[in-house]
Amino acid sequence: MINLEKILNTVKEQGVVPLFYHDDIAVCTGVIDALYKVGIRIVEFTNRGEKAPENFSKLVQLREERWPGLLLSVGTIKNAQQAKMFIDAHTDFIICPGVIPAVAETAAAANVVWVPGCMTPTEIMMAEQYGGKLVKLFPGNLLGPSFVSAVKELFPALMFMPTGGVEVDEQNMGAWFKAGVVAVGLGSKVISKDVLANKDYDTVSTLAAKALAIVQKLR
């Protein structure tokens, strides 16, 4: 089991967390190959299709030989049953679109890190009460960097990661990091539907490398 400190350190060091879903395991493998070769070591595979459990399990099985050192998380977990299913499939941590106490409790019982999604101070308070250390701000484009600036001092023990609408450019990412986030989640801006449909893995690598370079420059 990967411990909390390792996960938080990896998120912070990498500064970006790519996320995606696809029904075809070959496409999933191609995407992770493309991310891994440019230095990505943490990926969120979202639970957004009926093949998610099967494909996630296959990715975990491939990891040791194909992507050593990669942290694989599962996202879009909305209830305790889903949480348990992916915990049994050996997810390194769980990411939610909201604050679901039953998911937090299920993760805690299995000693698995839980990352809740929040968009209000009340939700952030709930996340903290249920043991959250890293908070996903979702949808990021509706909240904006100014939200982080306003609430960060209220929650000094928490780390923040916006997801949704974050652009792969220095101005947009710079505003978020200046506000105090430790990382940004990157979905369709790196792994778009067109990219997946065309199996355009070179674009995935190019955009992921660009995002990593921006993070390093900002720091």
From TrEMBL:
Keywords, sorted A to Z: Carbohydrate metabolism, Lyase
Gene3D superfamilies, A to Z: Aldolase class I
Domain of life: Bacteria
A GO molecular-function annotation: lyase activity
Pathway: Carbohydrate acid metabolism
Pfam family of the protein (one): Aldolase
Residues annotated as signal peptide: none
SUPFAM superfamilies listed in its UniProt record: Aldolase
Protein name (database record): Bifunctional 4-hydroxy-2-oxoglutarate aldolase/2-dehydro-3-deoxy-phosphogluconate aldolase
Species for this entry: Panacibacter microcysteis
